[in-house]
């Protein structure tokens, strides 16, 4: 009798026991998760907007890189049919959720998810990712959560207007070229000021005027008598410094583009810039979100809000998410960012709470500190590359059994450079960190010279890194650059010492 | 506190535009796949969707990336036996070896071909793209069994559900004005005069006049009240008329030689041809009937199964089939009501003496009535007697008579396209 009574009272504390979700239970879970995240773990988030969607809508969201509004392009259609095919054949599952860095933070939840999965996803996306978007310095610097949706609306409308006016084909050609150069359309060091969509529209018109004047000056062809000739003798090097943002440079200086084309380049550039922080913080972002869904749901269990069945289901999914197969497994496809991120975040907590002698030697600053504020600092001030360089501990290296290979095409063998031992920890850590350095992963290509007074040709310079050449797409890529620039394009691969190793040219036939 | 929105009822197919653009971009590959599918497939699943395969290199979007070569380092997990300084032989064949897996995982998908599915509808769309049925415009025939209702003004009769309230009330109003407009005006005057009398001095003469006026008012009221507010003949009804709907219907004659020289392979090729034509007609006409006529020395109308599978032998007299077809047209498919299409398949053999009879039969009883007559001669041999006869006839009926030669299944679809190619300047219907 008494046993039954305690059983009952415990039962009543559960938010729900069914695996079916309803809007009421989702609201109840969200309320509890929000309370724990805010009061207990001090997570600072944007307000949340949770949207329930069907699986086909999820596929739509996939196709438009997760954004609720996006302009049309065939490549998104390609992406869509690919996802549709793989999903309908059972070859891939869809993500449980997509979350958008906007204010309010929009999270899509699939209706197929069970109640447990919805709770996991809410903790993961609406409080994990959300707080990362709001706190991390890269997102704070480079993205504007307030304005992104408005900006995308503007972009979609502008591009569809261009399609009406200049034809879908023209716009598509241009977008193809822009997309090819998208990774070279980001500023890495300068900070743009965030502006609203309405302002954007006003400025767009001002820009049209300005660009026209500016260009006319640069490409002035009517010679002014006497005075001008002397100036010509002084060979002007333009641009004065090599430019890393190819799309920006082309937008501002291409001699052959119409104003609407410049605006479209700008749109692609802005989108690339918006996603740039996500590409740099994959491990941290997923690790952070995974760490928090794990911590928050465990806290819910400790408070008696969820039962054992809930926890079993949650832990099964969680274990799948953070699984890291070894290099010789058929399932291996590189390092799982969820696994590495989660392991490192949990490890930082461990170092704070229960430091070993080794930890004290390696991390004197944080060992034994307050884990909550330490993690908060980490989340705010690092990106993958620096995060790994700073916080990858020997323990995690041992747990993952990391080893570093060096593959030099001048040697007959591939060498093992370092493994998880005392001599190797630092080396592994440095090499893994480099692996997440985007400027190391992408070829370093910059705009070197424009022949302003001659044939207007554009010269790009590729500075070789460890003698690694460009892939076979390079000629195709020059065509895209040419499409935007309108005149001859040259690309030189040079060694850091200035020696040109290989040159590519795209020389037009009739100008 | 989160704001929870149910988006499940939002429209689907947000990606439709992108998907269409993708298909458009790769239509060359899709067309090729569709064309391959036609010669490969069984007839029974001819109509289904198709999975399209495009080589990955055709579809990839280029980016600047590192190629093979130079020095690179990569960190892997799950070390079991390696120690620092180990030298591993490069895997044979693939240069770069260890870095390979890292590269592949970068885009998350292997290097296999890009495969996707198009629906049945899309399949047929591609199958019959740029093809047109000749002479289709001529006979958008009126048939007796389908109607459309069209509005045709208003009527005095009808059922209450079709009552036109506005027109009824307007009509009632007009009638009231016509029947008692004068009385109403007079009543207004009388009332005004009475009001004046009430204001003035009371006297004998005034009282008399008041009496007269009131008597008139009473009379006017009776008359006005006698006119009903709404009368039967005020009621107006929306009129709908039944108009026969143009319903394009077609009959397709399949004529095939089943004499001894027709092998099962040739029959199969013929069947594919008939089936393609059937699908194509089905796309253009709502209602299609198919008549199967097979012949050796005698012609017979048979059902589909017998047509394709029953075995017969004997000589060949083509005119028997043409005459039978002429009879059937006369009996059941009046050219004024039906669009008639004929597809004939044969290996070209005919009894020599029969050619003249064929000629007469075609000119007199068949060709004048058909929309389009297609003949395919199947086989590797040189053109046979029938071919020369038809070639001759074609000059006189260039708008409705087409002949082609087919060697095997793979040629069926190209030949079909040739037969029904949209001619420049022809109206697209």
Widest sheet of chain A: strand order?
6-7-8-9
Write out the strand line-up for the largest beta sheet of chain B, numbering strands in chain order: 10-9-8-11-12-13
Which percent bin holds the helix content of chain B?
40-55%
| CATH fold category name of the largest domain in chain B | Rossmann fold
- The average pLDDT score of chain A comes to 87
For the record, the CATH class of the largest domain in chain B is Alpha Beta
Percentage of residues in DSSP E strands of chain A: 5-15%
| Order of helical and strand elements of chain B | EHHEHEEHEHEHHEEHEEHHEHEHEH
Number of helices of chain B: 13
Distance between the termini of chain A: 96 Å
Low-confidence stretches of chain B: 94-110, 425-429
- CATH homology group of the largest domain in chain B: von Willebrand factor, type A domain
Give the second-level CATH assignment, the architecture of the largest domain in chain B: 3-Layer(aba) Sandwich
Q: Main interface pair?
A: A-B, 101 and 68 residues
The major pleated sheet of chain A works out as: 4 strands, mixed
Rg of Cα set of chain B? 41 Å
Tell me the number of helical segments of chain A per DSSP (H or I, 4 or more residues long): 22
DSSP summary, beta strand count of chain B: 13
Low-confidence runs of chain A: 1-8
Global geometry of chain B = flat
Organism (chain A): Thiothrix caldifontis
Domain SpoVR protein-like N-terminal (chain A): 20-440
Domain SpoVR-like C-terminal (chain A): 443-495
Protein name (chain A): Stage V sporulation protein SpoVR/YcgB, involved in spore cortex formation
């Amino acid at each position: 009798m008494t046993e039954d009574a305690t059983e009952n009272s415990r039962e009543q504390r559960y938010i729900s026991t069914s695996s079916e979700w309803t809007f009421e239970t989702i609201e109840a879970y969200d309320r509890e998760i929000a309370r724990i995240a805010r009061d207990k773990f001090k997570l600072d988030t944007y307000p949340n907007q949770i949207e329930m969607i069907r699986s086909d809508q999820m596929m739509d969201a996939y196709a438009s890189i997760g954004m609720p509004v996006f302009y049309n392009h065939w490549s998104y259609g390609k992406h869509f049919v690919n996802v549709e095919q793989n999903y309908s054949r059972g070859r891939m599952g869809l993500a449980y959720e997509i979350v958008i860095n906007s204010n309010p933070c929009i999270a899509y939840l699939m209706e197929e998810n069970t109640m447990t999965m919805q709770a996991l996803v809410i903790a993961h996306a609406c409080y994990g990712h959300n707080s990362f978007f709001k706190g991390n310095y890269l997102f704070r610097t480079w993205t504007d959560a307030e304005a992104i949706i408005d900006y995308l609306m503007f972009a979609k409308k502008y591009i569809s207007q261009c399609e009406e006016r200049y034809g879908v084909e023209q716009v598509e050609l241009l977008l193809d070229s822009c997309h090819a150069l998208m990774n070279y359309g980001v500023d890495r060091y300068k900070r743009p000021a965030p502006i609203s969509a309405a302002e954007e529209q006003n400025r767009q018109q001002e820009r049209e005027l300005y660009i026209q004047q500016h260009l006319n000056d640069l490409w002035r062809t009517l010679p002014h008598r006497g005075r001008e000739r002397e100036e010509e003798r002084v060979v002007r090097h333009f641009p004065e410094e090599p430019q890393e943002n190819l799309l920006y440079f082309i937008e501002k200086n291409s001699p052959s583009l119409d104003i609407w084309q410049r605006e479209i380049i700008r749109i692609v550039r802005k989108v690339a810039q918006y996603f740039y922080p996500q590409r740099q913080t994959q491990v941290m972002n997923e690790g952070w979100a995974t760490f928090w869904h794990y911590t928050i749901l465990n806290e819910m269990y400790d408070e008696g809000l969820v039962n054992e069945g809930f926890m079993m289901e949650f832990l099964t999914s969680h274990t799948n998410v953070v699984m890291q197969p070894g290099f010789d497994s058929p399932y291996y496809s590189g390092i799982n960012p969820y696994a590495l991120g989660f392991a490192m975040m949990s490890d930082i907590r461990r170092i704070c709470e229960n430091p070993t002698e080794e930890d004290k030697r390696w991390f004197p600053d944080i060992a034994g500190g307050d884990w909550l504020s330490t993690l908060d600092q980490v989340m705010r001030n690092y990106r993958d590359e620096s995060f790994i360089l700073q916080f990858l501990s020997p323990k995690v290296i041992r747990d993952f059994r990391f080893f570093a290979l060096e593959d030099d095409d001048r040697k007959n063998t591939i060498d093992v450079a370092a493994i998880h031992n005392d001599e190797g920890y630092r080396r592994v850590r440095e090499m893994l960190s480099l692996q997440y350095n985007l400027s190391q992963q992408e070829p370093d290509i910059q705009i070197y010279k424009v022949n302003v007074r001659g044939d207007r040709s554009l010269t790009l310079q590729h500075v070789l890194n460890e003698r690694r050449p460009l892939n076979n797409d390079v000629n195709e890529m020059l065509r895209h650059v040419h499409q935007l620039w309108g005149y001859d394009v040259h690309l030189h691969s040079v060694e850091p010492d200035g020696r040109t190793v290989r040159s590519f040219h795209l020389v037009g036939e009739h100008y | 506190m989160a704001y929870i929105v149910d988006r499940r009822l939002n429209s689907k197919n947000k990606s439709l535009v992108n998907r269409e653009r993708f298909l458009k971009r790769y239509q060359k590959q899709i067309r090729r796949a569709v064309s391959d599918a036609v010669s490969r497939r069984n007839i029974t699943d001819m109509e289904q969707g198709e999975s399209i395969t495009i080589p990955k290199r055709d579809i990839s979007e280029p980016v600047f990336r590192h190629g093979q070569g130079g020095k690179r380092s990569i960190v892997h997990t799950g070390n079991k036996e390696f120690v620092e300084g180990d030298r591993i032989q490069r895997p044979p064949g693939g240069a770069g070896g260890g870095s390979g897996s890292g590269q592949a995982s970068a885009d998350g998908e292997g290097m296999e071909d890009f495969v996707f599915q198009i629906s049945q509808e899309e399949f047929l769309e591609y199958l019959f793209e740029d093809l047109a049925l000749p002479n289709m415009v001529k006979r958008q025939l009126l048939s007796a069994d389908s109607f459309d209702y069209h509005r045709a003004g208003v009527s005095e009769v009808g059922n209450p559900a079709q009552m036109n309230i506005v027109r009824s009330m307007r009509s009632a109003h007009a009638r009231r004005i016509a029947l008692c407009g004068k009385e109403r005006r007079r009543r207004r005057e009388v009332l005004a005069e009475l009001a004046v009398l009430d204001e003035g001095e009371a006297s004998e003469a005034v009282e008399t006049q008041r009496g007269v006026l009131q008597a008139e008012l009473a009379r006017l009221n009776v008359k006005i009240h006698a006119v009903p507010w709404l009368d039967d003949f005020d009621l107006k009804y929306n009129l709908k008329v039944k108009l026969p709907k143009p319903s394009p219907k077609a009959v397709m004659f399949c004529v095939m030689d089943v004499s001894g020289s027709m092998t099962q392979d040739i029959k199969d090729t013929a069947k594919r041809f008939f089936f393609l034509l059937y699908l194509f007609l089905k796309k253009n006409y709502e209602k299609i009937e198919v008549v199967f006529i097979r012949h050796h020395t005698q012609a017979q109308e048979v059902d589909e199964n017998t047509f394709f599978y029953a075995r017969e032998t004997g000589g060949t007299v083509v005119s028997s089939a043409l005459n039978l077809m002429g009879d059937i047209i006369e009996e059941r498919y009046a050219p004024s009501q039906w669009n008639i299409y004929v597809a004939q398949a044969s290996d070209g053999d005919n009894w020599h003496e029969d050619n003249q009879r064929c000629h007469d039969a075609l000119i007199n009883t068949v060709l004048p009535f058909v929309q389009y007559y297609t003949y395919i001669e199947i086989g590797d041999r040189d053109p046979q007697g029938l071919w020369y006869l038809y070639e001759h006839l074609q000059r006189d009926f260039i708008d409705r008579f087409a002949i082609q030669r087919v060697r095997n299944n793979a040629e069926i679809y190209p030949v079909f396209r040739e037969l029904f190619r949209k001619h420049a300047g022809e109206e697209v219907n």
